[in-house]
Amino acid sequence: MTTLQKICMGYFVALMIAASLNYIPGHTDENGLAFGIFALDIFDDALHVASALWALIAGIISHRAARTFLILFGLAYLGDGVFGFFTGYGYLDLGIFTNASAGIDISLPRFLANLPHLALGGFAVWTGFRK
Predict the structure, then answer these.
(1) 60-106 pLDDT, tens digit each
(2) How crowded is residue 123: how many other Cβ atoms within 10 Å of its Cβ?
(3) What are the φ and ψ backbone dihedral angles of 50, each rounded to 5 degrees?
(4) Angle, alpha carbons 53-55-56 (nearest 5°)
């Protein structure tokens, strides 16, 4: 198993954890915000599970499939994080279609709410193109 395939397995685990956050007691506050920062709904959970399965399958298949996953997944999640930072909603969970734009808000809470997608996407793109 190559390094990129192992990284895909790591993404599988990380994304399954993200999909389970709403169902683990103590991770959401009284407003339904995970870690008091962002809300996750059924669309987010479905996105995370689908992405996790994609990572798992790519990691099992081959080095080339893993690299393709990391680049495509990375670009999609990185773009979603950037878009979410500037508008308040991402496109991967269809948030831009179901909510009015929250406008530009360059604040720490907005940054932290989008940090998971920025970090996961950025690292995936970097490793996909680097290796």
Answers:
(1) 999 999 999 999 999 999 999 998 888 877 788 777 787 777 778 78
(2) 17
(3) -60, -45
(4) 65
B/e letters for 77-102, b = 16+ CB within 10 Å, e = fewer, are bbbbbbbbbbbbbbebbebbeeeeee
What DSSP element (H or E) covers 97?
helix 95-98
Q: How far is CA 50 from the centre of its chain?
A: 11
The CA distance from 45 to 21, in Å, is 9
Q: What is the pLDDT of residues 7-25, one digit of tens each?
A: 999 999 999 998 888 777 7
Q: Describe the crossing of helices 63-87 and 42-61 by its angle, rounded to 10 degrees.
A: 160
CA gap 1, 35 in Å, rounded: 35
Closest CA to 51 of 16, 10, 94: 16
As given in the structure block, the two tokens for residue 1 are 């198993």
Measure CA of the first residue to CA of the last residue in the chain; give whole Å: 14
pTM for this structure? 0.84
